[in-house]
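Listing S7. Sequence submitted for prediction.
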Amino acid sequence: MKFSDMPYERPNLDEIKARIASLTERLTKAATFEDADAAFLAKDELDRHVSTLGTIANIRHTVNTLDEFYDEETEFWNAADPEIQAADDIFRAALLDSKFRPQLEEKYGTLIFEQAEQQRRTFSPDIVDDLKHENELSTEYQKLIASAQIEFEGEAYTLSQLTPMKTCADDARRLAAWKAEGAWYKGNQPELDRLYDELVAVRTKMGRALGHDDFVALGYDRMGRLSYGREDVERFRTAVRAYVVPLANKVFYAQSKRTGRPYPLSFADEALTFRGGNPRPKGTAEDILDAGSAFYHELSPETDAFFKTMRNDDLMDVLSTKGKAGGGYMTEILDYNVPFIFANFNGTAGDVDVVTHEAGHAFSYYMNTDRVPAALCTPTSEACEVHSMSMEFLAWPWEEGFFGEDARKYRYAHLAGALTFIPYGTMVDHFQHEMYEHPDLTPAERHATWKRLLATYMPWMAVNGDIPFYGEGQGWQRQQHIYELPFYYIDYCLAQTVALEVWQLSQADFKDAWEHYMAYTRQGGTRPFTELVEHAGLKSPFDAECLKGICEAASAWLESYDLSGIE
């Protein structure tokens, strides 16, 4: 079914809660395993349907935040989700206490019970109003970002539409684009500060209501982390500073020489990888999707069938338009067993990354739609990012189809960018820990913290006030995850590390790398992150030797890469 044909009607919240209560009672009173299993399966079916309606509403809202109908539906779901969560919490308690738990664990595995215990730690009826307020604040931020109309060269651009000018080869024009974007953020600084103040406050309040000193432990539980904790992340940070930051510094020093820009680099100059301009995809948006079809057709029968479904059923909305929310994502429409990709094409290499990265997410779900319950279809976020980031590297043999003569540029920029991203992503996570460990910081103190961390994780940056907003330590406010998805960002860094392992394997034997990828993907969400990695024959990113080995291999590749003839 095409996405446009999928029906939507606001559900009756009282009926949903009554249905959950009825299924809870059925499970509690079950006389046989068959009765308990039937109640469990009926609850999964209900969850799928409720999720589908909420997902359809969210997709249509983010595609056009100016649509009044779906704006109102978003308000409904912001208020309804915490109440549904309250009813779900009672069902989970019954599931965990069921006398048929051993039989249910034997049939479905123990992970869903471990997840249920963790989810119960994230909720109390006392925080329902706080959850609603958090949802409202996140939506406010999303709408503020989507509303941006930046005046530049006599035209008005959204943040996404301005991106190509922020990476163009003309130094003056590129700098002007960065200043124009920074000025928009500066003009909205009071609102950005207020929103984050309130988000930190309400999240801290919830953390304390659930028995913690701050939000951090609750944040980890909300991310579903079962196989690692704060100490592991701190150990990963140490390895990033030891191995990745020095290599990234070398990469950017070489870039400054290549582009003729002073080192340390300004924010505008860091964005320019090659003097002649960054790699750009060839052709139109449709041409990029056609190149994606060719790639997935040749990669494997599974990926071919998958991408044909995505295109034939209009399960992608990729053009950047007025009123469209920023960023990109993949989500699952559970009733129809299909993924959906949302993006903002803007003529940069990021458009190709959508066809590989977001489609990598979508392919993983596509391969696991038959799992029951639905929670086992996809793993936690850091595990999901392995599917997407690895797919980016697996597309390397097909880059000429996407980039034409810029394919050589892209391969270099892609590997260099994957490495240099890790310090930035790790810094985002470090920053969030400091924000929630010290929730009473003022906006000025938050900006000072970001500026201090920039010097540690990104020493190649010239942190000064030349570009409004960015040079003043305020650039963190453009990172949507910090507002909407606290503690998500380290997931990209962990996944990038595993994806670089896949890249390393692909350089030696592409078929072997693909087999590791599929071994990882076919597990769906049946194991926690580190166990998924182990069962696919890959190394844990928490092993410092893993990052060390990757950096050595990548450094050798970058240093030996032939850049002759590339401007």
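Caption to Listing S7: primary sequence and predicted structure tokens for the chain studied. DSSP finds 24 helices and five strands in the chain. The longest strand covers residues 338-345.
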